[in-house]
């Protein structure tokens, strides 16, 4: 027999050792530790830890939509449908949805690609959103969320078996999960830099530079975009999207459009336009050749149901043989949570004017819109007034990603401690002010620049406290280095 | 630009082509097609399709537990807590659970390994179940279900980078998902045959034969077991478990104990005993050296909440460095559905005698137990009386896995059609009698033997209809070949 615990250790898959435990995880652990200390009565200059490092509206105190919760609760516990207390459209919706569940129970498995009726609902939603562009249910796969969708789509084409590993063009800064998933599958991240000075614009010259630099050491096959941007808050206009599509067409790249923040555009001059809509409006040869996967989720926008888990991916222009392969691949997974699927159906078909639930539903959404617009203004105002911090306009999504203009002495001190300067800034902010933010290096940034990410989907009251803590800490931090 | 849809097709990851689209998926498609035909008014000798190919109690018409649904519904829609209609223990449980959710909402993300309080609940449950054997929260990871847990654990040690690929000993017959997950990761399935003639016994001689046969062409590192057995219905006794543990210790194998059917033992002479309990009762050197992962889920047993998605894995005796690696690996996933986590908490701490919900809860469980025992009797009785079909005792889990003794002419006819004989039998059963079962080849079986799998977690009424259709079809099928 081997000595205790030695057998597996020797054998843990080598690729695992390469997964870096993220700085965010370390900060979250420290935040939990501080919270425990506060609960034990340890004195600190703050009474609690405020955590704005997640993209999570409910964590920030924003409330779920009443109609959504009434329908899901009724599906779970259908006795509620016998009471008079729920609006009739809630009852009808729940009855309809239960009728699509095997055995009339949300506890039954569904088809691995989703309940067929809900897949059709999603296709109708997409088509309506895109002004009538056709959306075929057989191109839509429901998953437990966009992380899962992204992983499945990467599995479809990323390969390490060939001499040249698969490359994917990835924005810097970006959504860190994507890079991690790509590297776990053995793919290569090909970074292209968003133009911070111009509101985090996507520049085709930069895409071309990145692509050409990558060729030779990997096989670039796809281009990943987040629009509206996480963590950058930019929203691409039609021209910018057209440019990217044209580039993808010329270079034969599979477009991965992460559009989970499609409901979150705060800038009155900007609109969300889907990549699919632009692609179809460009006409042939683009509309019938550029391969596209578009992602959406119940975790973001007005729903904010991160904990319920649900999302979908729609494929466009994939060869039928590839789609067959995709179908087989998605079939290897268990179905997504039925409650997540139901929530997706509500997202696809929300209450309409005239429905009993419409007044409350639309009022809740209006209030949330107002909160977000007000939050954006306050964040830009306060951060804009802080010396040594600057923030591009936040047009969409739910984050501020300000740049920290750190004095060289601060950078040197962090580097001497062997820590990335923005991690060091974030750690001090957490320890001294009880505010947990995300360090910019988690998302990627141009060398020599430093950022932090804050979720601004939170109550106005909470945001004021966040800004107060951030301002006081920042001024004190700066004063130490001048 | 490339011709339409050619770019990705050429490049789809080669490993994907090796995923066989399962026979079960093909049968499910055919079942859906027949259902659609019936709805269009096409005349068939049956009015609907009954599908017993899934391990899914709610699909079979068994009802969810009232307490479970009341608590989850209240967590989703806390206004319910203001009504008088729900028992006080439901209200308390929901309040407690909401208190563990960020922002007091089940819509917020949780720690990727699960809500800490629920992880502790699970560890208390395990310790209570195992008569006091210690269970540490830090060794427990909550996932969206046991499929996900199995996949993550395989990712921990399966590797293709070394000269010898990782092998895992897998029972035949077995749970097909496991083999698929293993092969998707590039691991090698090392089959060991359960002894059908002796109630699907696990024999150490057979384990040894399989292991020795595998050495040389792969690196066998782990041993997968399902107990109670899927699809076989066997329940291992203490001696059998001890023998397997001793073998794993001698051969330095990581034990993967799939114990999701731990609540489903129907045979009065049998008990579920966990691998962990036996391991600890064997004492050193076993208890402090044999590496074990044990799996459980909310989808099986009395809960049957497949659609809600939730489960956990507990590791035992893993080196701290490996556990750190496991922690990093599990952190790459989003959290499991919060509603699944809440259901897991109820599984860990169900109502107790004296609680207002206890009488209904215990009555529902008693009724379900009675149904299962009655179903087992009826299945054994009816199948036992059919010529050319035989079934080992069903002591646990929720399936019957009878052997079909097909006449050589039937086998030849199937083979001439290029179809596995049990797939052919299952297709005819579906077409002619509207009954959808699982073909044995999906689970693996000794060459030359043929089986079908039926889920018996269903209402007594439904079971009678299943048995009537199966008997009539079987007799007619047989008569054609004599």
Give a quick summary of the entry.
The structure is a homodimer of 482-residue chains. With 482 residues, chain A is of the alpha/beta class.
Describe this structure in words.
Chains A, B: Its EC number is 2.6.1.2. Chains A, B: This is alanine transaminase. The structure is a homodimer of 482-residue chains. In chain A, helix 4 packs across helix 5. Chain A has a seven-stranded mixed beta sheet with strand order 2-8-7-6-5-3-4, sandwiched between helices. In chain A, strands 9, 10, 11, 13 and 14 form a five-stranded antiparallel beta sheet that branches. The N terminus of chain A is likely disordered. With 482 residues, chain A is of the alpha/beta class. Chain A is globular and about 65 Å long. Chain A folds into two domains: 170 residues, Aspartate Aminotransferase, domain 1; 256 residues, Aspartate Aminotransferase, domain 2 (3-Layer(aba) Sandwich), CATH 3.40.640. In chain A, 44% of the residues lie in helices and 12% in strands. Chains A and B meet through helix 1, helix 2, helix 4, helix 7 and helix 8 of A and helix 1, helix 2, helix 4, helix 7 and helix 8 of B.
């Amino acid at each position: 027999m081997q000595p205790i615990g030695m057998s597996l250790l020797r054998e843990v898959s080598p690729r695992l050792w390469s997964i870096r435990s993220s700085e965010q995880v370390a900060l979250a652990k420290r935040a939990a530790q501080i919270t425990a200390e506060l609960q034990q009565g340890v004195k600190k200059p703050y009474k609690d830890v405020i955590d704005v490092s997640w993209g999570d509206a409910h964590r920030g105190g924003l409330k779920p939509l009443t109609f959504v919760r009434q329908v899901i609760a009724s599906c779970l516990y259908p006795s509620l449908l016998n009471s008079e207390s729920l609006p009739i459209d809630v009852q009808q919706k729940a009855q309809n949805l239960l009728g699509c569940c095997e055995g009339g129970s949300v506890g039954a498995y569904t088809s691995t690609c989703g309940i067929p009726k809900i897949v059709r609902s999603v296709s109708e939603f997409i088509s309506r959103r895109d002004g009538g562009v056709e959306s075929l249910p057989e191109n839509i796969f429901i998953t437990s969320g966009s992380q899962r969708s992204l992983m499945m789509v990467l599995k479809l084409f990323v390969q390490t078996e060939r001499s040249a590993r698969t490359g994917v063009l990835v924005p810097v800064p970006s959504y860190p999960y994507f890079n991690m998933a790509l590297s776990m599958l053995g793919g290569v991240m090909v970074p292209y830099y968003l133009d911070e000075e111009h509101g985090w614009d996507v520049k085709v010259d930069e895409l071309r530079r990145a692509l050409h630099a990558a060729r030779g050491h990997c096989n670039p096959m796809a281009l990943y975009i987040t629009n509206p941007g996480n963590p950058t808050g930019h929203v691409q206009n039609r021209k910018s999207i057209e440019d990217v599509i044209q580039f993808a067409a010329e270079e034969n790249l599979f477009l991965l459009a992460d559009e989970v923040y499609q409901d979150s555009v705060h800038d009155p001059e900007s609109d969300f336009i889907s990549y699919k809509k632009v692609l179809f409006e460009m006409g042939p040869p683009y509309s019938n050749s550029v391969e596209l996967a578009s992602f959406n989720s119940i975790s973001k926008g007005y729903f904010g149901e991160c904990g319920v888990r649900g999302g979908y991916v729609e494929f466009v222009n994939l060869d039928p043989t590839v789609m067959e392969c995709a179908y087989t691949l998605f079939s290897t997974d268990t179905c997504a949570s039925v409650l997540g699927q139901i929530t997706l159906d509500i997202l696809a078909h929300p209450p309409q004017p005239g429905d009993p639930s419409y007044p409350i539903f639309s009022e809740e959404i209006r209030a949330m819109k107002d909160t977000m617009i007000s939050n954006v203004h306050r964040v830009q105002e306060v951060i804009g007034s802080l010396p040594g911090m600057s923030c591009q306009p936040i047009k969409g999504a739910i984050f501020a990603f300000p740049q920290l203009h750190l004095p060289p002495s601060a950078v040197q001190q962090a580097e001497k401690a062997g820590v990335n300067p923005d991690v060091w800034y974030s750690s001090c902010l957490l320890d001294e002010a009880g505010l947990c933010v995300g360090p910019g290096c988690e998302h990627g940034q141009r060398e020599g620049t430093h950022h932090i990410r804050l979720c601004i989907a939170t109550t106005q009251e909470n945001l004021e406290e966040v800004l107060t803590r951030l301002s006081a800490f920042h001024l004190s931090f700066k004063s130490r280095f001048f």
